Amino acid sequence: MKKLIKLIVWAGIFMSFAKQTEAQVWVGTIPSYYNPSFAGGADMPRLSTYSFINTSKNGLVANQHYLSYDQYISKIASGIGFNLEYNNRNSVNLLDLSKPDNFNTYYRAEMIIAPKISINGKWTISPSVSASVNHQHFRLDETPFNPSLLGDETNLHLGAGLLLNSKRFYLGYSIYHLPTAVRGGRYSTSPWTSMVQAGYTFQRSEEANFAFTPQLLWIIRNEFTPTRNLFPAGVSLNFRYKNILFGMGQTPEQSPCIMIGYQSGRFRIMHMFVTHLDLEEGSYAGSLSFRYLFGNPK
Q: Which of 14, 84, 144, 277 lies at 20 to 30 Å from 155 by C-alpha?
């Protein structure tokens, strides 16, 4: 009991360090979302899905859906990954309902290759590269500072990552949105995002019923605030007792959230919900994710 109390205290300390980030995905849910080097890191081919929904009475509706597949290919000693993302934000103009809704819809398709280099059979180093095609369709109302905008944009983005991991520990660095984006058929510089991610699983043995896994994400630089942040931007603190999962973390809006889930063999399901929203006012923000491992171990 004393050990459990200490873990909860440390969880609270970690959560107090969390800062705002634009990322919506719970750290660790979609392995290659923040670092492409995670592709092919499981013992078997892995299929993951993630859906985030945020609704409120002020007219804002936001949702994000993600589908990911990755596996290790022994013939090339590399992991490969394929990711699809749909992200939409829609808001009603409550001051003038005759005006069309504002919206920002985003589609992304990504391909990843991540070679695996084994060190003494205990550690793995994985460099990686990724390429994605991104399409954005948007409409924004006119403001005193900006004209009304309606348009489409298609970009080609590149990314890279580096990961050092063992069975229980990982430390990685990644960079996305490199300045080689193709905008309207022309090459141009564009903002970029770099991140550091780390995690460790505390577990007495592979057969132990209880495990605790803190995972931290630092945004070193991003396209909105190009500054170095000392404190983690994303935090997930996951507890597992037998097949039951429980976690605490922080949303991009610096709101505390709770995760509950179930894991059995190759299947896992998790639900994360924001705890500060007033459900009586019709507000909800949360996510549902699935993961399934299939095929034969590598």
A: 144
List C-alpha distances in Å: 96 to 93, 99, 101, 232. Answer: 6, 6, 10, 40
In the structure encoding, which two tokens stand for residue 203, read together?
Answer: 């577990």
Q: What is the pLDDT of residues 148-165, one digit of tens each?
A: 556 677 888 889 999 999
Q: Please provide residue 255's backbone torsions phi and psi, each rounded to the nearest 5 degrees.
A: -105, 135
DSSP conformation class of 10: H
Rounded Cα distance, 206 and 208, in Å: 6
In this prediction, the residues of the chain whose per-residue pLDDT falls under 70 are 1-24, 56-60, 91-103, 139-151, 177-191, 221-233, 251-255, 275-282, 296-298
CA distances from 297 to 34, 69, 274 (A): 24, 15, 36
Question: How many other CB atoms are there within 10 angstroms of residue 125's CB atom?
Answer: 14
The span from the CA of 139 to the CA of 103, in Å, is 5
CA-nearest of 218, 197, 27, 203 to 128 is: 197
- For 4, residues 6+ apart whose C-beta sits below 8 A from its C-beta are none
Whole-prediction pTM: 0.79
Nearest Cα to Cα of residue 293 among 124, 67, 69? 69
Q: What are the φ and ψ backbone dihedral angles of 129, each rounded to 5 degrees?
A: -135, 150
Residue 234 burial (10 A CB sphere; 0-12, 13-18, 19+): buried
